Amino acid sequence: MAEKTKLDANYTVKKSMGMGTIRVIAYVVLVLLSLMCLIWFYLLFINATRAHSEITARISFVPGDNLIDNLKKLFTSTLDFPRGILNSAFVAFASSILTVYFSMMTAFAVHAYNFKGKKAVHVFILAIMMIPTQVTSLGFYRLVVDTLNLKDSFIPLIVPSIMSPITYFYIVQYMKSNLPMSLIEAARIDGCMEISILNRIVFPLMKPALAVQLIFAFVASWNNYYMPAMILSSSKKRTLPILIYTLRSATEKDKDFGFQYVAMALSVLPVIVVYVFFARKIVGGVSVGGVKE
Amino acid sequence: MNETVKKHSKLGKDKWGYIFLIPFFVAFLVFSFWPLIQTIYFSFFDHYFSQTDFDYVNKFAGLKNYKELFTPETARLFFNTMVMWILGFIPQIVFSLLLASWFANNRLRIRGAGFFKAVIYLPNLIMAIAFGMMFFTMFSRGGPVHQICEAFGMSPEYDFFFHIGPTRSLVAFINFIMWFGNTTILLMAGIMGINESLFEAAEVDGASQFQVFRKITLPILKPILIYVLITSLIGGIQMYDVPEVVTKSSGMPMSKDIFSLNVPAAETVIMRLAKYISKSKNYGSAGALSVMLLFITGILSVVVYKFMVKDEE
Amino acid sequence: MKKVAKVLSLVLILVLTVGCFAACGKKDEAAQGKVLNIYCWNEEFKERVEKLYPGYTKDSSDSSKGKIGDVTVVWNITPNANNAYQNALDEALRKQKDAKADDKVDLFLIEADYALKYVEPSVSMSLADLGINVSKDLANQYKYTQDVVTDSKGNLKGASWQGCPAGLIYRTDIAEKVLGSSDVDIVQKAVKDWASFEATAAKMKEAGYAMVAGFDDSFRVFSNNVSSAWVDADKNVVVDKRIWDWVDQTKKFTDNGYNLKDSLWGEGPWKQGFFMDGTTFCYFGPAWFIDFCMNCDQPNSVGDAGKWHITVGPEGFFWGGTWVCAATGTDNSELVKDIILKMTADTDILVKLAQTFSDFVNDKPAMEKLAADSSIGNKYLGGQNLYGVLAEGANKISIKYASAYDQGCNENFQACMKEYFLGNATLDEAIEAFKVKIKTVYPDLKTDKIGR
What we know:
Strand order of the largest sheet of chain B: 1-2
Radius of gyration of chain C: 23 Å
Low-confidence stretches of chain B: 1-9
CATH class of chain B: Mainly Alpha
Largest sheet of chain B: 2 strands, antiparallel
Mean pLDDT of chain C: 88
Strand content of chain B: 5-15%
Number of domains of chain B: 1
Number of domains of chain C: 3
CATH class of the largest domain in chain C: Alpha Beta
Helix content of chain B: 55-70%
Order of helices and strands of chain C: HEHEEEHEHHHEHHHHHHEHEEEHHHHHH
Largest interface: A-B, 109 and 111 residues
Low-confidence stretches of chain C: 18-30
Shape of chain C: globular
Largest sheet of chain C: 6 strands, mixed
Strand order of the largest sheet of chain C: 2-3-4-1-5-10
Number of helices of chain B: 13
Order of helices and strands of chain B: HHEEHHHHHHHHHEEHH
Structural class of chain B: mainly alpha
CATH architecture of the largest domain in chain C: 3-Layer(aba) Sandwich
Structural class of chain C: alpha+beta
Number of strands of chain C: 10
Radius of gyration of chain B: 24 Å
CATH superfamily of the largest domain in chain C: Periplasmic binding protein-like II
Oligomer: heterotrimer
CATH topology of chain B: MetI-like fold
CATH superfamily of chain B: MetI-like
Strand content of chain C: 5-15%
Helix content of chain C: 40-55%
CATH topology of the largest domain in chain C: D-Maltodextrin-Binding Protein, domain 2
CATH architecture of chain B: Orthogonal Bundle
Distance between the termini of chain B: 14 Å
Number of strands of chain B: 4
């Protein structure tokens, strides 16, 4: 390994900081950062248990006793939150799965094959990555509503996920260090079809990277408000962010922060569960590993 | 690596490269390229929704939209955006590298590493509005953070959101909190791919922690680091919802600087673009600003990418 | 060119109206549509119709639908965030002519801040054309609620079930200490016009209190009483003298420490003033502000102690409200007419609305009856009956000068002037910033005339 020889050359006996000191620093930093990360969730869930007037009055770190009332409002509301959760879950699952699968396919094409214009394709996709989504949102809306006549449909929120340059880029980078060509060659010699090399050999090897990207894609879709709000119009199809924004746009008189916070808490909860489940998979998947060069 | 591929690949197999690219490019042409062409097309038109006629005004305007945007004010929007991005990105990359190397370090054996990893990613799951709402109550006058600062001698009249430095820093801080866990996970996935024996060998050789990090971890992480830097840069240029919520969409406070202009100090490019698109439906100016944005993002990314790739050789 | 356009548009309107009459003539009541589309941004109107419109039945499987007789009611709800509601409505109304009968917008809801955007163009129907006799059927409504939705030709184009007249809400304990009495008449004398208001503010400051908490507390009071619109006939943005009065007053208040340098809905001192340990003397607001925004049910709040009182204040103004408009091209004109009449002018229903939703309803006799009822007292106001004060305020409001651009002008002007008050910018600099914001939001407006 090149790195190792380099290291040998730079061999020094300089005494480094003791492992114990580093460990103490590490724990202090980790605990502080964790607190900074968790306080928002703590406040979110605390506010979900408080009444509107309590929340607007002052901040509190102690739970209130309004959780049941807030939940009641949530489930009896004409806004139909259970339906919103299902809608969001469906759109987020479908689009994140499309994202990771097709990004893997695209990355595989560029990583494993030699064809004319391969480098150009790579650079081109990187260039696409630079297009801010907002730049195309207007034309996209016109296309969906006027040309394709897909207003109030989930399709325009799901199908475009096939193209995700950022996910592609990550997977290509990952393949560079984790997908040896020898493995693919071996499979070819065994007479594997190209598509089944992708599905049976590359896919399992890519699992840790795919899981990471799946989470990212899922969360992005789950929290997405801008496009869904423009495209979905019937209340049967509303996703969670749209419902939360509907609550937020109540007049000052009808505004209910307790209701809003319980809705937000409920929309965050499933993502945390999904995340915790996949977080294990990532760690597990990496240690299982594959063939190392 | 390319050479080995060339040697081993059999004729005919490579057409699969094209086949596997089809879904991506079809999706791109339909959902991204066509809308983009429209955007560019609009940029040459006076194209906006007139409230009095209740319909779109649509007449050719040549470069008018570009001329109107080619001002120091617009430069200022880019400047604001980059300042807030850098303020957040530096701590983000520092802490992510630190954390990732700690987590991956077998000798350190961090207890509850799984828990910490899960926790630091959490802020990324929360919607920016929820973040913004709680952020206000924390940092506003009378909020807990403000009270702590008062105990250290800050005036009770001081309002973070009325001053340029604090407002920008708070935006950067939220971005940092929201994204450093994400970056850590990305870097970890890279570090975990590093062969364990490398670290062991270094250890036997008596290399210090810092040396291991510099000589082993960093070079292997380079592709992922490039990815993190570029995606973060792109994400930074597209910064929108955090400053939108924190400044209640005004982008204020106002600031004066070298341009001797009086423009909002926390208004980002996309905040302006969003106003064109959703408030005034001024698609002409939106198109022109989009094209400018496209150019600048492209140049920045090419610079970063070239710089990193050159460094690699 | 402009003349030609004007003539053309006149001809067009003529043709359209004639066409409409012809169409109406041809159609019988039997030709009414089967789907009633209502556009709105939240559940407010929906809840009220569901509860109180006679014969409305909810669809148990789909919360966005309901039935009135054999007509299906479809609620198209788009939240306000990012201007999404107006965008959705604009698109729908723009395509109204070509839309299928079942997709046509029939009713839509608007707010005062942008009312004229929909009232002035032909997208909304004059209520008279719907067959409503304005002077007879809507006689009980407060005049200002009709002014808000009257176009420049004098056509009434919408109606509201509620009024949101507002007053000056003050703390009785501070009034007693500083003004010697908390009596409404005495306090009203101390705030009867802006000069007195300022003099009182000085007294408050001397006693260690702030007259108001924020910069923009009084903005609505000034902006409701302007003598010219934000935008003139040539699409120039002009700042009315009364708006400058607000700027001058607020600057003075800020520099003299008469306010607490916060903003409306601020998390800091503005909110602290709702509690007994706050130092703010007064707020401007309507009934719903007291009931739902001032944390009156919280321990240690001023409302909980019953120490708020309300008086008319320097000038009449209103805050809030939702108006119902009929969309031009509706295929359910009969039902639309009936909904507007029942929900905004039927005294029985309005009284029930007041009881169920505690709305200040748009019915003068009903509210006057409440005002005269000495048994009614608001506990947050120490038992004061606020209806008398508000009804008096409601009659004083006159909204003559509004424009389709009010929302953006009001919002951005306040945001820019705040920088001036804080000393982050000079007045000229703040004005320049305002011009840029206006150009962004309204590309068709001219900003050269902005200035003093």
